[in-house]
Amino acid sequence: MKILVPVKLVASIDEDCELREDGRDVDPDFLDYELNEWDDYSWEEAVRLQEAHGAEVEIIPVTVGPAEAEDGLRRCLAKGGERAIRVWHDALEASDPMAVARVIAKLAKRENADLVLAGTLSSDHGFAATGMCVASLLGWAHAAVVSRLDISPGAERATVRRELEAGLEEEISVQCPAVLTIQLGINEPRYASLRGIKQAKAKPLEVVSHIDLGLEDAEVGESGSLSRVRRMFAPERGQAELIEGTPAEQAARIAAIVKQATGGAQ
Amino acid sequence: MVVAEHRRGELTAATLEVIAAAVELKQAKDMTVAVAVLARDPSAFTDPVSVAGVDEIVNATVPVSEFQNDIYEAIVDRMIDARQPAVVLLPHSIDAWGYAPALAARRQCGFATDVFALKYDGDDLVATRAAYGEKMHVELDFCGKDTVLITLRSNIYKPIGGASTPAVTNFEAPVVEARTVATGFIEPESAGDVDISQAEFMLSVGRGIAEEDNIEQFEELADAMGFTLGCSRPIADSGWLPKSRQVGQSGKTVSNCNLYLAFGISGSVQHMAGMKHVPKIIAVNTDADASIFTIASYGVVADMFEIAEELKNHFD
Ligand SMILES: Cc1cc2nc3c(=O)[nH]c(=O)nc-3n(C[C@H](O)[C@H](O)[C@H](O)COP(=O)(O)OP(=O)(O)OC[C@H]3O[C@@H](n4cnc5c(N)ncnc54)[C@H](O)[C@@H]3O)c2cc1C
Ligand SMILES: Nc1ncnc2c1ncn2[C@@H]1O[C@H](COP(=O)(O)O)[C@@H](O)[C@H]1O
Fold first, then answer.
1. Residues of A203-218 as b/e, b for ≥16 C-beta within 10 angstroms?
2. In whole angstroms, what is the distance from residue B104 CA to residue B86 CA?
3. Pocket of ligand 2 (CB under 6 A)
């Protein structure tokens, strides 16, 4: 069983960021990157499956992103897996979940994968869309927001739990091959060992472009997307009254508000 | 066109919000609003979706009582073929996460998720959503696509009152192979813990707490203040506090809370879903741009440990 795990570096904004000249995105100089939180969980789930079934299971982290995105792949390889794939080309800039999904679906086909474990959501843009777009392109069964996964190599069906609202869950049986999006808390992701981090540096990391995968420029980037950013802007700040001063002064003010609300009753 | 959502026989609250958004759009652009109901017995939902402004209800009888993604995807796809709606609105809900993107990919229609504002600019539908952890907003358009599929954030549009008597149409639903089969619900564990949905005063801690060992300090502070201790999801996922203490979409809504103290919580949409209605919110966060400040009544840009240390002195 071959498991493809798409992972993404998510961007967060520095204080006082500036927009790009076209006003449609933040100037990349003001962005910091880290691995999407959800991808820690999906990779951990893959590593556990690999450990449970040994050579029967191969796990491959893949990312669509520029050279910096290799950090995320190395971070995965430090915990398990023997190789990784990164896809990039300038034409992939400004891809929405649909355009990214085209690339991932092509990779899944090329690799003959049996299972794709994506994250439920990305913490920067929060689309909650990429995994299900991949499923549609592959024509595979799918389930989103998976909080428990039970699958064996070669099995025709997997048993999964989906997390619904307010702690309610649903158990479903899913036909394989499948695309699942993994939810936080499905497992406890391990920390990479120093030895693992060292070994990861030597593991092969293949770099390809969308063209190598048989996609045209028009199928990726903005032209391959289902929406287009017109403009980006900083939202109006709320009406929060700022409590300023030293921590002692701030705490005194909070205490006063608290005591007023609770009627000073202790 | 709106696709209604229901769970265990109840129409979801988010469906009524989405209907409100559709009615608002209809007024801007001279359209009609149809609500699609996919259910074993769609007529059971006729009353609840017959809201002022709804012109038509389109019923599709399906062989399952609960949501099933292949069935929803295929039937809504056929409905779009047959009816060619300009806009299809769904709640940005767990169920929609499981099929809306697949439907958009299948149709290659315009698509955006977690949208919280919609308007027309000439003939272009313009949708607003957040980016970079809610710190930025973006306006999207859809490059002239004939149909645009949108999932709408909850708690933005207010359900409209007033009933109507929409025309009811039956839609001949295709037979669909369901590749996933639901085998049952698993109820949340009702641990013998306090019920935070009843608490009047809450002090919640988020990932800013950094380490499990730091929980105790906030437990003591909450006790001293007469507050109930709650948390954001990462704290519950790590097992530092029981799941029953988690505030938010997949945790609890603090319905009875009057004063909510958020320590080291960034203010994700999912956390705010459980507490943004609280009349008084005090947020303590080192990041002046944290989105929790957009809904807080009082903002304290400071280290939560320093504030907690000082606060303790006021509640001996
Ligand atoms: C389907 C679904 C359901 C979900 N349900 C929920 C839910 O019910 N509840 C929930 O909470 N989340 C939920 N989440 C997760 C949610 O998306 C966020 O991941 C989570 O809310 C983040 O928690 P946080 O704010 O504690 O952590 P972070 O976002 O990491 O924020 C930590 C904050 O602490 C601040 N900080 C750091 N150090 C300090 C310090 N010393 N002093 C003061 N501030 C400090 C930082 O500036 C930051 O703003 C759900 C997600 C999904 C996909
Ligand atoms: N550029 C990318 N490269 C690899 N995987 C991605 C990328 N973007 C999104 N994903 C996958 O989609 C998930 C997030 O979904 P979304 O919220 O739709 O962006 C991530 O956890 C990844 O599994």
1. eebeebebeebebeee
2. 14
3. A 6-8, 36, 38-39, 63-65, 97, 100, 118-119, 121-122, 126-131
Dihedral angle, C-alpha B162, B163, B164, B169, nearest 10 °: 130
Q: How far is the CA of B265 from the centre of ligand 1 (A)?
A: 5
Q: Are A57 and A50 in contact (CB under 8 A)?
A: yes
User: Cα–Cα distance between B245 and A129 in angstroms, integer?
Assistant: 29
Where in the sequence is the domain holding A17, given as residue range(s)?
2-219
Structure tokens given for B2: 């709106």
Angle between helix B304-312 and A247-262 (nearest 10): 60
Instruction: Sort strands A9-13 and A228-233 into parallel, antiparallel or unpaired.
Output: unpaired
Of A15-24, A96-105, A140-149, the poorest mean pLDDT is in A15-24
B183 near A CB under 8 A: yes
For A26-70, the pLDDT digits (tens) are 999 999 999 999 999 999 999 999 999 999 999 999 999 999 999
Contact A235, B233 (CB under 8 A): no
A157 assigned to some structural domain: yes
Q: To which H or E segment does residue B121 belong?
A: strand B117-121
- Note the pTM of the prediction, 2 decimals: 0.94
The yes-or-no verdict on residue A216 having pLDDT over 90 is: yes
- Domains of chain A: total: 1
**Are A58 and A117 spatial neighbours (Cβ–Cβ below 8 Å)?**
no
The answer as to whether A253 is a domain residue is no
Question: How many angstroms separate the CA atoms of B19 and B274, rounded?
Answer: 22
- Average pLDDT per consecutive 10 residues, chain B (316 residues; last block may be shorter): 96 97 93 97 97 97 95 98 97 97 98 97 95 94 94 94 94 94 88 86 97 97 96 95 94 95 96 95 95 94 97 91
**Residue A257 domain flag:** no
Residue B154's CB is within 10 A of a number of other CB atoms, namely 20
CATH number at residue A214: 3.40.50.620
Q: Is residue A119 part of a domain?
A: yes
* Minimum-distance ligand 1 atom for the alpha carbon of B284: 43
